[in-house]
Amino acid sequence: MKCRKCGGSAALELRRHNAAFCSPHFIEFFRKQVAEAIHKHRMFTPDEPILVAVSGGKDSLGLWDVLIEEGYRTAGLYLDLGIFDYSQESKAKCEAFAAARGQKLCIERVAGAVGAPIPEVQRVTRRPTCSACGLSKRYLLNRAALEHGYAVVATGHNLDDEAATLFNSVLHWQTEALPRQSPALPSTHPKLARRVKPLYRLSELETAAYAFLRRIDYIVEECPFAKGATSLAHKEVLNRLEEVSPGAKHNFLFGFLDICAFCKLADQVKRRTRPSSAAPGMVE
Amino acid sequence: MKCRKCGGSAALELRRHNAAFCSPHFIEFFRKQVAEAIHKHRMFTPDEPILVAVSGGKDSLGLWDVLIEEGYRTAGLYLDLGIFDYSQESKAKCEAFAAARGQKLCIERVAGAVGAPIPEVQRVTRRPTCSACGLSKRYLLNRAALEHGYAVVATGHNLDDEAATLFNSVLHWQTEALPRQSPALPSTHPKLARRVKPLYRLSELETAAYAFLRRIDYIVEECPFAKGATSLAHKEVLNRLEEVSPGAKHNFLFGFLDICAFCKLADQVKRRTRPSSAAPGMVE
């Protein structure tokens, strides 16, 4: 296989793009996809400070790496969930990453804000762990953005994450969740930061390849509470569909986003022509 | 495991219903589900003659068996697709079934109407085989109903078939296909028969168990052209989801049908209150 750009020996084949790349041109391709996402959804401007939520995994550290390389003003935010060794190791990866690149890293302890670390939260509440953890993370991410003066928070959600979330909503016909499924969620209140997902165009395989090629030292283990999570079963199923027809995941997510773009357009027109009748539940 | 009805030894466990049944009570359960489907969607009246499309497989012969046992006036319709041994064997199963029960069986040859059997159609057109075959079947089913004077055609589509079709539409966001996904499709033209799917509440496992327990001699092989069909990959994936969470298939299909029922209600109200503004693309 040869690189699509230079004809040199390819390091990676991307079946859904019917393309292969050598290492330098894959890195270029990856960064272009991020730039395209930022541009298309007007995620942030070149001089706007960005708070990057980092977990120590390949996606969020890969995202931070791209943003630093592209010259954005960034700081990392690590939420310490207090999940035994897993949290200690992932925090160490984030600290080492930030130190090596001379970047600021803010650290927030969930136990400080919620009153107990996640394993304890799981014990005393009836919520599924991932649900309680996700809720705490969304709250603390936003609080940190507000305290440190950031109007926008970037997360490392990739194509597989977004497709799996959409898949779950569709399987359960949770239609009310669909308008919130967007690569860029605007601020809906003066105290709520915008949330953006610049990696939504890149698959998990691609973020792993980027982190590997960029020699990013990340935590490979999954969170110990993720075992048996339906989101993992959904990812597995989507990967099976991808095997049978390359591009299935991409088409599923992007087909939805295109429909959604149409809805947003229609909604915009309605607002402009009848300014008093904002559609309930729609994200502006 | 014990039968939910009589406490006797259970022959079959239905995890999604959290129930188990002995053979006679499973057969009763199965027929009640068919009766519920017919009633709920007003598929046909007790004295209306029904044309049952039979392929020789477990689903369509199982359906025909239920309708005969329930006292409906039925005739079978077998479409001879001309697919080598597969068609010969499946036709023989249908003929034997009809003869043993003293029922009328109409036979139509696709080659006679289309000009060539399905393998030849595949060769000379560029359509995928299943697409050309499905199109021919829908046309010939309706033509036969019209010629023989049947206002309604019943097919053996089960829960797995319907969930897989819905899954495919959703994966590709073919929203225009959704209104047609219904257990009962009304006649939209004087020359088009109604189409109903009385088995839509029953899974493939359940139709297989029914055919087995009723000692129905059916063709076990899949159509040779079905190998590698995406519909099979989708069924496999749905079965994987069902393993992880029993009822996933059922909830996916029925969640959709419930939403759809609401849309139909809303549509009905709109039509009644503003009779001139029929929503385009909606099935009445």
Fraction in beta strands of chain A: 5-15%
H and E order of chain A: EEHEHEHEHHHEHEEHHH
Radius of gyration of chain A in whole Å, from Cα? 19 Å
Largest sheet: spatial strand order of chain A: 5-4-3-6-8-7
**Fraction of residues in H or I helices of chain A:** 40-55%
Assembly state (oligomeric): homodimer
Average pLDDT confidence of chain A is 90
Largest sheet descriptor of chain A: 6 strands, mixed
Low-confidence stretches of chain A: 275-284
The best one-word shape of chain A is: globular
Give the number of DSSP strands of chain A. 8
Q: Termini distance of chain A?
A: 45 Å
Biggest protein-protein contact in the assembly: A-B, 21 and 21 residues
Tally the helices of chain A: 10
Structural class of chain A: alpha/beta
Topology:
Two copies of one chain form a homodimer.
Chain A: E1 12-14, E2 19-21, H1 23-40, E3 50-54, H2 58-69, E4 74-80, H3 84-100, E5 104-109, H4 110-114, H5 118-124, H6 129-148, E6 152-154, H7 159-171, E7 184-185, E8 194-196, H8 204-213, H9 230-244, H10 248-273
Parallel strand pairs in A: 3-4, 3-6, 4-5, 6-8
Antiparallel strand pairs in A: 1-2, 7-8
Helix pairs in contact in A: 1-8, 2-8, 7-9, 7-10
